[in-house]
Amino acid sequence: MKRVYNFSAGPSMLPLPVLEKAASEMLDYNGSGMSVMEMSHRSPVYDAIIKDAEAKLRTLMNIPDNYKVLFLQGGASTQFAAVPLNLMNKNGKADYILSGQFSTKAYKEALKYGDAAVAASSKDDNFAFVPATTRESFRPDADYVHVCFNNTIYGTKFPYIPDTGDIPLVADMSSCIISEPVDVSKFGLIYAGAQKNMAPAGLTVVIVREDLIGHARPTTPAMLDYQLMADNGSMYNTPPCYCIYIAKLVYEWILSLGGLEAMKALNMKKASLLYDYLDSQDYYIAPVKKESRSMMNVTFVTGDAELDKKFAKEAAEAGLQNLKGHRSVGGMRASIYNAMPYEGVECLVAFMKKFAAENPKE
Ligand SMILES: *Cc1c(COP(=O)(O)O)cnc(C)c1O
């Protein structure tokens, strides 16, 4: 067996110990005589798995008791609609910070449901940084403010939590959740598609303050109603059972490493290795402004589209896969989520040096 270093933005690498544990339990989970994939979600053995997954996530993220944890489906993109349907119902207004494609999609979806407004945007600079905001950036009667915390495509991250005063802050954390500690109490709602940093595709985690649920507009589809989902312990219908089980194993893996402080230290070590190299040379250009750099997604270009193409191809042949940048940005993107080992980034930097030496620019 040969495993590559997979720099995909998502679905992405899962920790090797998690895959090994899942493999060892594949045919017979804990003496049940069946795979987790095969069991009824109503069985006591599965009930213990979903409860344990929630308990572990609560421990890991230090989630306050007045927040619900929901295990849902439909990806982060479904939350673009679920959020306004559930929350945009007091004054029918919501403010969006545009820092990339996903926040723009979220904003466009919200426009269908009410008065969504752009509070700040870095679009004119091709989203190479995250916009600064102050309390004055937001309408005082907005029902919530939406932010995409880590911008997967551009490789930016908010270095600050927007100060929205009493207005609930809603954050898309798909590509940075459980990469470092975050103060959940500063947010009204956090959502994340699992396929970047938590589990296989198919699971979406929503962490929502209790007072924000129970106000969904009457036309809200049952599957998008947070209250209904919370009342049913995320089992109004069949949940993504196997994904939740893998998420539980991922939470256990991080806890065994020492929790989110330890995870952050590892992630910073990886990101610093790559950024320090990028800052030390002038063959590759890192387009993101330094203060907005993401620890999870690192973008860079050679400045020559042909060389970029050659880079991605030769890197893949060397076992460093999926380094091609998003089609809207070009160049390269190295997604170095929790599961990417430090050695993977070391190999990448070594490859970058070799490629630069072998392919001089005019
Ligand atoms: C990947 C991603 C999405 C889209 O997620 P889906 O689960 O595919 O809907 C949304 N927001 C961010 C920040 C992402 O990284």
Task: Please describe the biggest sheet, giving its number of strands, its sense, and whether it closes into a barrel.
Answer: 7 strands, mixed
CATH topology of the largest domain: Aspartate Aminotransferase, domain 2
Termini Cα gap: 41 Å
Q: How many helical stretches? A: 9
Strand elements, count: 13
> Strands of the largest sheet, in order across it?
2-10-9-8-5-3-4
Return the CATH architecture of the largest domain. 3-Layer(aba) Sandwich
Q: Stretches where pLDDT falls below 50 for ≥5 residues?
A: none
Average pLDDT for all residues: 97
Which value, in Å, is the CA radius of gyration? 21 Å
Number of domains: 2
How much of the sequence is in beta strands? Answer: 15-25%
CATH superfamily of the largest domain: Type I PLP-dependent aspartate aminotransferase-like (Major domain)
SSE series: EHHEHEHEEEEEEEHHHEHEEH
Bound molecules: pyridoxal-5'-phosphate
Helix content: 25-40%
SS-based structural class? alpha/beta
In one word, what is the shape? globular
Defining traits:
Aspartate Aminotransferase, domain 1, 362 residues, binds pyridoxal-5'-phosphate, 2 domains, seven-stranded mixed β-sheet, Aspartate Aminotransferase, domain 2, two-stranded parallel sheet, alpha/beta
In short:
This protein has 362 residues and is of the alpha/beta class.
Question: What can you see in these coordinates?
Answer:
This protein is α/β, with parallel strands linked by helices and 362 residues long. The chain has two domains: 17-257, Type I PLP-dependent aspartate aminotransferase-like (Major domain) (Aspartate Aminotransferase, domain 2), CATH 3.40.640.10; 258-358, Aspartate Aminotransferase, domain 1 (Alpha-Beta Complex), CATH 3.90.1150. It is 35% helix and 15% strand. It is built from nine helices and 13 strands. A seven-stranded mixed beta sheet has the order 2-10-9-8-5-3-4. The protein has a two-stranded parallel sheet with strand order 1-12. Strand 3 (93-98), helix 4 (101-111) and strand 4 (115-121) form a beta-alpha-beta unit. The radius of gyration is 21 Å and the shape is globular. Bound molecules: pyridoxal-5'-phosphate. Residues 10, 75-77, 102, 148, 152, 172, 174-175, 193, 196 line the site of pyridoxal-5'-phosphate.
